[in-house]
Design a protein that fits this description.
By secondary structure, the chain is α/β, with parallel strands linked by helices. The protein has 11 helices and 12 strands. Strand 10, helix 8 and strand 11 form a beta-alpha-beta unit. The protein starts with 14 loop residues before the first helix and ends with a helix.
Length: about 325
């Protein structure tokens, strides 16, 4: 019997041949490393649910940044963990708030480093929600003013990119107007445009001390069952002035990432969230998986799905592995 088939294995015969035809790569420039900043001195608090991740005080931040820069990482995203909280998240938009101070320190020691400021209220409010609360309801429009104030104060401190993560309707429009009115027309917005109400966020809430004190965030974050809603959210943010679009989480939403990439021409950012990180760390610590191989395969999958950039707690490890090549 004469067989007629294609010999795809011709292009897999050696490492050199596989390298020659490889379609997707990870680079240092793809990586954005999240940092949790706490008040106080000489603090480097391990996050129990995220092995290898720490809360770092401002005085230790220069040394932390030296390590990050030496690894070749070009961008960080800052999350503040303030000592005091209140009902309206005052610390988020104080000109000397924890993220604002951290931004100044990073830019002073590593001016070339891209500083992305997470713009949200949940780490600063005593109820743990991302906006102004009345009764059990998170109010949309009154929250916008505070988010815009937060973005402007972060831009004043030197943030290169504003990354609003609150999922209030109109948040990009309000922040864009606030930045423009304050003279920060050139500061781009990296919008958490497609942010699902996910069970993968648990370890992050330990790290950022941002667990809601009542209810949940399903009235403003998206239903994991929805696909078309992601496109509506992304379209709104693009119309309002977003410069980057984030899909969060990443691993369980690669289909959404590809949809967004196909529909919009803005840079797409995958947020490889805390739960995704912790699962791999736990499995690796138990000897169940090859951590390096699994992490690299996972992040390549995100890039293949359309991500141009990846926010990931694995960034230090990945940068080190890339340096060893």
């Amino acid at each position: 019997m004469e067989l007629n088939f294609k010999r795809h294995r011709r292009l897999r015969q050696s490492a050199s041949m596989r390298s020659l035809v490889r379609e997707t790569y990870l680079h240092h420039e793809d990586l954005i490393y999240p940092l949790f900043i706490v008040e106080g001195e000489n603090k480097k608090n391990a996050v129990a649910s995220m092995p290898g991740v720490y809360q770092v005080s401002l005085d230790l931040l220069p040394a932390e940044m030296d390590e990050i820069a030496a690894l070749g990482i070009k961008s960080v995203i800052l999350f503040g963990v303030p000592a005091e909280k209140d009902s309206t998240g005052t610390g988020a938009y104080h000109d000397h708030g924890i993220v604002q101070e951290a931004t100044r320190i990073v830019k002073e020691h590593h001016p070339e480093m891209i500083v992305i400021a997470d713009t949200c209220l949940c780490e600063y409010t005593d109820h743990g929600h991302c906006g102004v609360v009345e009764g059990a309801k998170v109010l949309n429009d009154p929250s916008l003013d505070l988010l815009a104030k937060t973005a402007v104060s972060q831009a004043k401190a030197g943030a290169d990119i504003i990354a609003p993560s609150n999922m209030m309707d109109g948040f990009v429009a309000a922040i864009r107007k606030g930045l423009d009115d304050a003279g920060f027309e050139d500061v781009p917005i990296m919008s958490y445009a497609v942010k699902y109400s996910s069970a993968f966020y648990g370890p992050f809430r330990d790290a950022a001390d941002s667990t809601p004190q009542f209810g949940d965030r399903r009235t403003y974050q998206m239903d994991p069952a929805n696909r078309l809603e992601a496109l509506r959210e992304a379209q709104s943010d693009m119309d309002e002035g977003a410069d980057f679009l984030i899909v969060k989480p990443a691993l369980a939403y690669l289909d959404i990432m590809r949809d967004v990439k196909n529909e919009f021409n803005a840079p797409l950012v995958a947020y490889n969230v805390s739960g995704e990180y912790s699962m791999i760390k736990a499995a690796a610590q138990n000897g169940w998986i090859d951590e390096k191989a699994v992490v690299m395969e996972k992040l390549l999958g995100m890039k293949r799905a359309g991500a141009d950039l990846i926010i990931t707690y694995h960034a230090k490890d990945v940068a080190q592995w890339l340096n060893e090549k």
